């Protein structure tokens, strides 16, 4: 009998199959598991997996154990419904971040840049892991990490599991996304890459920026934006700004970094984007039976994006927009990343230590002009905004894999991760021009700033977030028989977050009109502050700081067995004890500390049956129970502005956990290596789903909040096909080693909220008395937010099986989906993703001196799809966001030494 391939032995099925090797001129692009360097050859583990009898495939740190027979297809051998995005798949798409690559996976869509929706369920129902360990989020509104911060250069492969198994955390609504970093190499290598890109709506076009600091191009501020000393003292003193002397307020205001953060500068020709990377690794023997491997990567990218955006709002959609702005916003995004991994092997024992650093900085400048009939009819409003957002993730993980004999094995893992988000000096200036109010504006044709928030405003906001996450776990497996394995495991996570947001507005009395017309830095200069007695007003609310925590203890047991030839079972149950709390910090010594806690214990069963008919055909059926917890920000009624959607959010301390019942059936036919045809159907019932609702005032101030709807259902089906067509039968020598690649998938999803008479909910505005009717906030039959009825992905390519040469067309389509409930039960706000067509070409090139390299060319959004987010009723559309995305052309060169 062939020896089973354990986690230690098949460390590379998901990772080391993509481990870089010395780059040769040949490229086995025929293997979707290869291609981590510019070319690869099938690894020994890959060949062993293909030739072995019973196979146990474990993926490092992920608790994924795959039991199968004579196959190298992980999706086929896995006991669950999984999709694997290998390094070859990632490189074929040409995406720069992992979120872009994941949108090609069956049933997945990416919303707001980096949040992955699985089968139409929002990001709250998705679980992201790194090497099997949880990740903290650098986003104030989310507990899930945005995947667009992960460059593809540090990710070796991605596994998406859509059916729950007890070894995963219980917050598994739509699925789990396990990112696997590059594995320890078997040979020494070094790669250096550079690239550049241009966008038709941004590069060489008009845009806006501001000075900030001299080191902004690095993504690191030179400390210029640090909170000023007097303001920091005021935050720490616990004295409301209303009780601070006016002279002390002025002293604080005069310490603000003024002109460098407030003066908007027009740039007539924005620069092209640039990126660079370096990665390498080596391995060496220590003693007679141990081997040590080291891998390191580093990357830098600097990107620009300008959006000429139409933003509207309406109290009654049929009557048209009552608020309408045209906004030009320019974002300069700088990303710095690094990875250091060390691995040790001796015998069948393995240790792996992985360290990841990602810093993503966004420098934003915008200018908007428009009208708001809810304030002054016929007046023009000019709004200028500047901001600086730092997101940072530091993650260190340790994994140990120990095999005591042929039957008993132990896997242990532990990790610490820290995420931070700092947003100092979010500045906004509002100027008003009106011919109808001569007392305010005797000139009539100039913008003025009265600093009274009805006719002009100026504000500055400081935000900070820090989250620490400790995690650990162990799995003990015992093989009773070759086809019967039992596993017992324990997992622990402890998350702690502190978040603060201080919003300060400038206050003036009887400011002369000539002064109101000054540009921002003169308007708020030291001389103006002192001469005209400007003060500060605190709009942060009574609790500008909150602490949050989530601690989960989980124990689980699993059985994997072959009941009789062809029929296998993967069954288990997870017990999960979760304690989640959010506490408002009593900064101003009011004597009250808002506190909300959600404490629940769950038994979460899961079972999957797989019947292998033979000939590559098999059928699956699975059922499970999972949960979804509220996110931290949603549990406290603290205001927050989401700058991406330009929306005002407020949490709800009355939210409760959601419970999901899941069912899947699936048919799979594997025609050959990496060739497959699959079809599946799925159904989910959600009790107490957390949904957004929106309210709007007569001044067009829109507030989005959260509440538990009574119930929701979701169902649909998926089909997926992957096929290679060799062209060696053609007469031309050009086609002798080439083949056509055909990859396609389609997902149909339907969901609806269930709201009946007598159903109630608890909004954040609730105080006492009878609970409000759920129908006041949710419409029966409405789809879940984020769910598209149709998702389509098609890849058509031509590639060489002997050397690196790939040309691929990629088409993605998503039908409209709800992004937020319509204000005051008006029509829902929908996003229209539409159709996107991309082209990616990769070509191996030999440089002088025999140096192997890869040249990549990309054309993104060839058809020029626009972004549209709107309400519609009676043939009238209200655009919350509408702008041109533009077409992006990119080229890069990677050289291997």
TrEMBL record:
**What top-level branch of life does the organism fall under?**
Bacteria
Q: Where is the TonB-dependent receptor plug domain?
A: 77-176
Signal peptide range: 1-24
Biased composition of type Polar residues is found at: 27-43
Swiss-Prot/TrEMBL keywords? Cell outer membrane, Membrane, Receptor, Signal, TonB box
List membrane-spanning regions. none
| Disordered: annotated segments | 27-55
Q: Where in the cell is it found?
A: Cell outer membrane
Predominant location category? membrane
The protein here is known as: TonB-dependent receptor
Name the source organism. Sphingobium soli
């Amino acid at each position: 009998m062939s020896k089973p391939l354990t986690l230690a032995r098949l460390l590379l099925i998901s990772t080391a199959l993509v481990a870089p090797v010395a780059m040769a001129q040949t490229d086995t692009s025929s293997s979707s598991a290869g291609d981590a360097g510019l070319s690869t050859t099938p690894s020994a583990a890959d060949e062993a997996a293909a030739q072995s009898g019973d196979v146990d495939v474990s993926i490092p740190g992920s608790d994924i154990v795959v039991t199968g027979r004579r196959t190298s297809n992980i999706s086929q051998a896995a006991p669950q419904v999984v999709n694997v995005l290998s390094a070859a798949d990632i490189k074929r798409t040409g995406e720069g971040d992992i979120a872009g690559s994941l949108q090609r996976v069956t049933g997945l869509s990416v919303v707001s840049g980096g949040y992955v929706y699985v089968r139409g369920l929002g990001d709250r129902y998705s679980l992201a892991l790194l090497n099997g360990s949880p990740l903290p989020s650098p986003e104030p509104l989310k507990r899930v990490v945005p995947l667009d911060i992960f460059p593809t250069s540090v990710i070796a492969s991605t596994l998406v599991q859509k059916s729950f198994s007890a070894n995963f955390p219980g917050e598994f609504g739509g699925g789990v996304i396990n990112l696997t970093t590059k594995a320890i190499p078997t040979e020494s290598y070094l790669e250096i890459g550079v690239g550049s890109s241009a966008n038709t709506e941004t590069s060489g076009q008009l845009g806006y920026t501001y000075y900030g600091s001299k080191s902004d191009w690095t993504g690191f501020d030179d400390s210029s934006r640090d909170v000023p000393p007097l303001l920091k003292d005021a935050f720490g003193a616990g004295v409301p700004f209303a009780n601070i002397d006016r002279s002390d307020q002025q002293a604080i205001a005069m310490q603000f970094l003024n002109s460098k953060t407030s003066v908007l500068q027009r740039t007539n020709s924005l620069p092209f984007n640039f990126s660079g990377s370096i990665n390498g690794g080596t391995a060496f023997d220590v003693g007679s039976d141990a081997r040590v491997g080291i891998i390191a990567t580093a990357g830098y990218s600097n990107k620009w994006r300008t959006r000429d955006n139409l933003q509207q709002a309406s109290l009654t959609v049929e009557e048209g927009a009552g608020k309408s702005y045209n906004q030009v916003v320019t974002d300069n995004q700088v990303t710095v990343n690094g990875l250091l991994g060390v691995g040790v092997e001796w015998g069948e024992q393995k240790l792996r230590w992985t360290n990841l650093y990602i810093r993503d900085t966004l420098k934003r400048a915008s200018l908007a002009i428009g009208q708001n009939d809810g304030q002054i009819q016929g007046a023009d409003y000019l709004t200028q905004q500047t901001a600086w957002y730092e997101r940072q993730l530091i993650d260190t993980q340790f994994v140990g894999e120990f095999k005591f004999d042929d039957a008993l094995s132990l896997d242990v893992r532990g990790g610490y991760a820290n995420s931070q988000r700092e947003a100092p000096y979010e500045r906004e200036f509002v100027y008003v021009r009106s011919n109808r109010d001569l007392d305010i504006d005797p000139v009539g044709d100039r913008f003025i700033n009265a600093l009274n928030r009805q006719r002009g405003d100026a504000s500055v906001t400081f935000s900070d977030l820090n989250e620490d996450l400790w995690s650990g776990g162990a799995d003990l497996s015992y093989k009773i028989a070759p086809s019967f394995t039992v596993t017992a495991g324990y997992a622990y996570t402890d998350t702690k977050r502190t978040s603060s947001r201080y919003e300060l507005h400038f206050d003036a009395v009887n400011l002369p009109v000539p002064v109101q017309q000054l540009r921002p830095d003169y308007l708020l200069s030291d001389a103006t502050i002192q001469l005209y007695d400007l003060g500060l007003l605190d709009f942060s609310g009574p609790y500008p700081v909150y602490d949050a925590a989530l601690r989960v203890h989980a124990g689980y047991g699993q059985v994997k067995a072959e009941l009789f030839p062809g029929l296998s079972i993967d069954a288990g149950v997870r017990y999960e004890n979760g304690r989640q709390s959010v506490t408002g910090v009593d900064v101003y010594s009011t004597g009250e500390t808002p506190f909300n806690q959600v404490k629940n214990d769950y038994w979460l069963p899961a079972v999957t049956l797989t019947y292998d008919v033979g000939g590559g055909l098999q059928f699956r059926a699975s059922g499970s129970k999972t949960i979804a917890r509220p996110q931290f920000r949603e549990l406290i009624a603290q205001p927050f502005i989401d700058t991406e959607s330009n929306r005002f959010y407020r949490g709800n301390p009355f939210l409760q956990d959601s419970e999901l019942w899941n069912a899947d059936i699936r048919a799979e036919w594997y025609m050959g290596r990496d060739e497959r045809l699959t079809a599946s159907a799925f159904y989910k019932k959600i009790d107490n789903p957390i949904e957004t609702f929106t309210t709007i005032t007569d001044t067009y101030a829109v507030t989005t909040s959260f509440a538990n709807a009574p119930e929701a259902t979701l169902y649909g089906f998926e089909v997926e096909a992957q096929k290679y067509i060799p062209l060696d039968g053609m007469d031309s020598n050009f086609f002798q080693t080439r083949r056509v690649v055909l990859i396609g998938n389609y997902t149909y999803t339907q969901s609806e909220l269930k709201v009946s008479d007598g159903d109630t909910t608890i909004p954040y505005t609730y105080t006492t008395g009878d609970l409000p009717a759920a129908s006041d906030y949710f419409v029966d039959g409405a789809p879940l937010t984020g769910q598209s009825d149709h998702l389509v992905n098609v890849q058509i390519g031509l590639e060489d099986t002997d050397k690196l040469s790939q040309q691929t067309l990629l088409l993605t389509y998503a039908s409209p989906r709800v992004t937020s409930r319509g204000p005051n039960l008006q029509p829902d706000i929908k996003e229209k993703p539409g159709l996107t067509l991309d082209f990616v070409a990769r070509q191996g090139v030999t440089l002088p001196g025999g140096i192997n390299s890869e040249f990549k060319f990309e054309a993104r959004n060839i058809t020029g799809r626009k972004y549209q987010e709107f309400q519609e009723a009676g043939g009238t559309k209200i655009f919350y966001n509408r702008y041109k995305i533009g077409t992006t052309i990119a080229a890069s060169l990677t050289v291997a030494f």
